């Protein structure tokens, strides 16, 4: 497929769409999303088009459309759309002649700029739109519009702009219309409220025209909308610019002294008034300074001819910060971030395994917020465990507001063979997320050394999840072992399997770790032990954990060295997947087979056994990893964007650097690449976290193995140098990787850091150079 995407070798901070094509609106709407973790807006055009998806989301504002549906992030009334009429012609890029179309996102500053020349009969104009969502002011967003009359004839201009509530989530309307009002003659406000969760919104906009005489300045109320209508004349060969400034507040915002509607209204107006002396560029500059703090924290520099590799990591980091609600621990990251309606804004295991590591290693304060969310989710996890007849904390497959528990929809897409809706079993039997949450907590503690979080929250999560697994195990009297039956592992193409290796091994790890933890706490921290003992009766729990963990079935390698993905996988039919792996997009396999058929073949959606080998690498030797990589990768479709990073890192570990780099490029192209439909429902959040992991864990070789920091770089031949940094137990470390050695430095006067590399232990006091 031909692409409209363009990347400039001279500016590795920008991604650009060159040329307009109505068929591919979703691509840049999604990958150029603007946001700050509190709110995000898809980068739709100002003027409307059939096929657009005009989304604005505010983190944590989940609502259920009706009692039979799960909650989702509601699509907030739009504040960026505008309609233009020029000499009586409605501005539309599917009419007239369009030239010099450019839509460009500056990753460094978070500014979107769109410009084009439009000709229609006697009208010849250039329009330039600039917009940003402020990183300095969580509630604020702004647009600047410049209209240049390129003809020598006068131009009459009409603009209709306001707040449009005629939007939905694929047909589900989540808001009551609410009150509307005009404050001080120029601030338009709408106060919609979510229908079920009763979250009150206050949306405020003002338009700023300077140096132009308006011939019309009229408010217009409408059903689910409030607009301003403006008109003015523009002389030949002249230009004008105006601004639209807006804010969004909600009744769940923590920082407000009052969440009453009238108080929020007054506060929003006062804020906009306080900004009157600041220009658009002033406000953009203060936002850009906040972005610069992110770019200054452990910058990643890649010296390579493949310049898109450098853009790829910046693209990934940009989105990780756009989508992450660092301001509020009651919220977490959606599988599509806040860039689209896909997955309803819900949180999955994607956070712990693919995105949390980025924050644990680079922004521990944000990581702390994300793991605190899981602590706040214990009530919901208890609710799910109890409803299923288990004990302890069983984390939901999909999570929204932390106390809600399970919010996975029951029904999904139609079966290609039967035509009937497919049941989504993940919410019922994809249970490895409980040990994934435990793994994320443990990794956070290993990296940060955050003893306060551990004592107050982390240990409790680890014990509660181990308690769940002890209750989940089923005794097989014939074999005299405990097993885990009827589950889905990471490979979601295999439903209702027994003894999925990833699930069994991670459950075993969770249980054994807690046995050791409790013994350590009893000796080292008796007060913490006493607090946990009061909740869990630790002596009895540990006895149960010991008895069951010793007898849990852990699938062992066959004579050929292959760890079975589950009890039945290796006995199933093998299908050549070449044509499906080479197809554009994902799920091409399901154009010919249904899930029931795929379930009976050795076809893996995403890394399963290989993810186990990567996350728990200390349990398996290199030869076994290589045999399993060679066996499972050809059988993996990579239909999940989560898959490629695991394969890239593991193949780098195994010395398969050419293959690893191919996976890296594939992962980078999921959202940034030429296929123009890949990102329509939203960006692939876990894959973007995976890009950072491929660079730092894969090519930088950073890993925590058995609670020990290890650094063993593997530089692709396409790269001359790689420089990156990370935090480790409160100290900042910088690593520069070259083809035959690496240089590691730490800042500050903290104690020496111990790490291993190629089997040798090193102590880092200030700087070390290590040759391979």
Automatic annotation (TrEMBL):
UniProt binding sites for substrate: 349-350, 605-606
Biological process, per Gene Ontology: carbohydrate metabolic process
Ranges for domain Glycoside hydrolase family 65 C-terminal: 703-764
Occurrences of domain Glycoside hydrolase family 65 N-terminal (ranges): 18-251
Signal peptide: none
Keywords: Glycosyltransferase, Transferase
UniProt xrefs under InterPro entries: 6-hairpin_glycosidase_sf (IPR008928), 6hp_glycosidase-like_sf (IPR012341), Gal_mutarotase_sf_dom (IPR011013), GH65_N (IPR037018), Glyco_hydro_65_C (IPR005194), Glyco_hydro_65_M (IPR005195), Glyco_hydro_65_N (IPR005196), Malt_Pase/Glycosyl_Hdrlase (IPR017045)
Active-site residue list: 492
Domain Glycoside hydrolase family 65 central catalytic: 314-693
Highest taxon of the lineage: Bacteria
Pfam families attached to this UniProt entry: Glyco_hydro_65C, Glyco_hydro_65m, Glyco_hydro_65N
GO terms of molecular function: carbohydrate binding; glycosyltransferase activity; hydrolase activity, hydrolyzing O-glycosyl compounds
Entry-linked SUPFAM superfamilies: Galactose mutarotase-like, Six-hairpin glycosidases
Recorded family membership: Belongs to the glycosyl hydrolase 65 family.
Protein name as it appears in the record: Kojibiose phosphorylase
Organism: Streptococcus varani
